[in-house]
Amino acid sequence: MGNVRTKLVKRTAKMLIEKFGDSFTTDFEYNKQKVAELIDVPSKKLRNLIAGYATRQVKRKKIIEAQISLRQEIPTTDEEEYIRQIEGV
C-alpha cells in the first residue's frame, strides 16, 4: 500500500512543478532545499512531504516519457520485421 497524502501536499507540489519544473530533479535532498527556497513552509514535515511528492512526480514523468519513446520505436521495427517475414515466405 502507498502513502496517503493530503490535497494540500499534492496541490502545492503540482503547482511548484508547473511553475518551476526545471528546478526539480529526482534527488529528494535537492528538492527539499528548492521547496524551502520557493515557498514559505510552516513546518519541516510539510516541507519534506511536498518535496517527496514532487520527487516522485518527477521520477514518474521521466519513466512515462521513456516508455512513450520506446512505444514509438517498437511498432515500426516490429511492423518492418513482420513484413519481411511475410515477403520471405
Helix-strand layout with pairing:
Blueprint: H1 7-19, H2 28-38, H3 44-88
- The helix/strand order is HHH
- The CATH first-level class comes to Mainly Alpha
Mean pLDDT metric: 86
Count of extended strands: 0
Query: What is the SS-derived class?
Result: mainly alpha
Helix content: over 70%
**CATH fold name:** Diphtheria Toxin Repressor, domain 2
Helical stretch tally? 3
Specify Rg, calculated over alpha carbons. 20 Å
Fraction of residues in β-strands = under 5%
Compute the number of structural domains: 1
CATH superfamily, by name, is Ribosomal protein S17
So what's the overall shape?
Answer: elongated
Give the terminus-to-terminus CA distance: 51 Å
Protein name: Small ribosomal subunit protein eS17
Keywords: Ribonucleoprotein, Ribosomal protein
Organism: Infirmifilum lucidum
GO cellular component, one term: ribonucleoprotein complex
List keywords for this structure.
89 residues; 3 helices; 78% helix; single chain; Diphtheria Toxin Repressor, domain 2
Describe the 3D structure:
This protein is 78% helix and 0% strand. The protein contains three helices and no strands. Helix 1 (7-19) packs across helix 3 (44-88) and helix 2 crosses helix 3 (44-88). The mean pLDDT is 86.
